[in-house]
Design goal:
Low-confidence stretches: 1-8, 57-61
Strand order of the largest sheet: 2-1-3
Order of helices and strands: HEEHEHHHHHHHHHHHHHH
Largest sheet: 3 strands, antiparallel
Radius of gyration: 30 Å
Length: 408
């Protein structure tokens, strides 16, 4: 326990000194104390004259470590190991090439742990926020089998595909959401600032305004009167929604079920979930993880409660001796293509290869769906924007046109 605590306290130091040739050198190294860093540098032939704890420049806090950073780290480690670079040296090379200071610190901490006698998987398990149980289990399997470089390559591919899938989903959601928010802001500015100017102008006309113009003016007046209440309501609603999603499992489960039932978005969520399931099961099974344990990992990786419960049911059925294809079929939530490929994989003894084909197929389907959705949403959103903003402008100029027609 003491060893674990000490390893977790390792920090980054900056050093200045001279090497064996008398050349001045400086750099960064991770360690628990300056003395330990000096000792480590001496082993490398560097006489450190100055060793100080690295200061972090904090402008809004340290830069966060993103899943993409972990995917890049995994790919770099896989490349280093394939090239025959020793594990500890691979950490140093990868750390030197990282731009994110937080990620660099993490890699150097892993290096210190491995140097202290920990295995790679054990060092990773001390950072569960960045390396989940599935990641650690796969690396552990690679170390135990003596094929760490092969396993790192598989994990890197898994992380890259998973993150690419997430980015596609975000891309599909981000564009319409951004445009809708922009449209709401522009409409609010028109109603709050532009319409009142026209309203003052219309008071001098002395004539009855068109019904459409009266409706827009009434809408503007209501927004002006209740603006702060609306803002407070939206902030409170957003805060409550975020807290419910964070703290209430029942609320999250309801959202998951709702998403699958939504038009267009539901189909996208369905395909991405099947792709994640197939990719995870293929990777874990190919790594030599027993099917029951592999299904355990898949349950959490699906990202949707409907499929998490289905995979748990599949695991229970498989543990009683049922074939995977029949267990999946009995849940009623897996598509025919995935069932057929699973059946072929079980019969041919190439389940991991067949599942990978399923993953590739549905990843491509998601990609095509995102492109199709974006192409469809662009003209639709532009049309809605044109109707809303154009309608407001027409409503304001309609009385002026009518007055011009009367005068003419």
């Amino acid at each position: 326990m003491a060893t674990k605590t000490a390893a977790q306290q390792s920090v980054t130091f900056t050093y200045e000194g001279v090497d064996r040739k008398g050349t001045k050198v400086k750099g960064e190294a991770a360690g628990k104390t300056p003395a330990m860093v000096r000792a480590e540098l001496r082993k490398q032939g560097i006489n450190a004259k100055k060793v100080v704890k690295k200061r972090e420049l904090r402008f809004g806090g340290k830069k966060k470590i993103k899943p993409l950073d972990i995917a890049l780290f995994t790919r770099q480690m896989a490349t280093m190991m394939k090239a025959g670079v020793p594990l500890v040296q691979a950490f140093e090379i990868v750390a030197d090439g990282l731009d994110n200071p937080s990620m660099k610190d993490l890699v150097l901490k892993l290096k210190v742990d491995v140097e202290g006698g920990n295995n790679f998987a054990g060092a990773l398990s001390k950072h569960p926020d960045y390396f989940d149980d599935l990641y650690c289990s796969l690396i552990d399997a690679g170390e135990q089998s003596g094929a760490l470089e092969t396993m790192l390559d598989r994990v890197a591919l898994y992380k890259e595909k998973s993150e690419a899938l997430k980015q596609k989903i975000k891309k599909a959601m981000k564009y319409p959401a951004t445009v809708v928010v922009a449209a709401v802001i522009v409409t609010a500015i028109l109603l709050l600032k532009v319409v009142p100017v026209f309203e003052d102008l219309f008071h001098g006309f002395g004539a009855e305004l068109p019904a459409f113009t009266q409706f827009v003016i009434s809408l503007s007046e209501s927004l002006q009167e209740n603006f702060f209440f609306i803002v407070i309501f939206l902030i409170a609603f957003s805060a409550i929604f975020v807290q419910l999603k964070k703290r209430s499992e029942a609320f999250r489960n309801s959202l998951d079920r709702l998403v699958l039932k939504l038009p267009i978005v539901g189909d996208l969520a369905f395909k991405s979930t099947i792709a994640r399931y197939a990719r995870t099961l293929s990777t874990t099974f190919a790594a030599g993880v027993p099917l029951i344990d592999a299904l355990d990992a898949c349950a959490g990786a699906t990202g949707n409660v409907v499929y998490r419960n289905a995979v748990i049911q599949v695991k229970e059925d498989v543990s009683t001796g049922q074939q995977l294809q029949f267990a999946m079929r009995s849940t009623g939530v897996f598509p025919a293509m995935a069932l057929q490929m699973t059946a072929i994989g079980e019969e041919s003894g190439a389940l991991d290869a067949m599942l990978e084909k399923v993953a590739i197929y549905y990843e491509d389907e998601v990609d095509n769906a995102v492109d199709g959705l974006t192409s469809m949403m662009e003209p639709l959103i532009m049309s809605v924007l044109g109707v809303v903003i154009g309608g407001l402008i027409i409503a304001m100029y309609l009385p002026i046109f009518q007055m011009g027609a009367v005068v003419g």
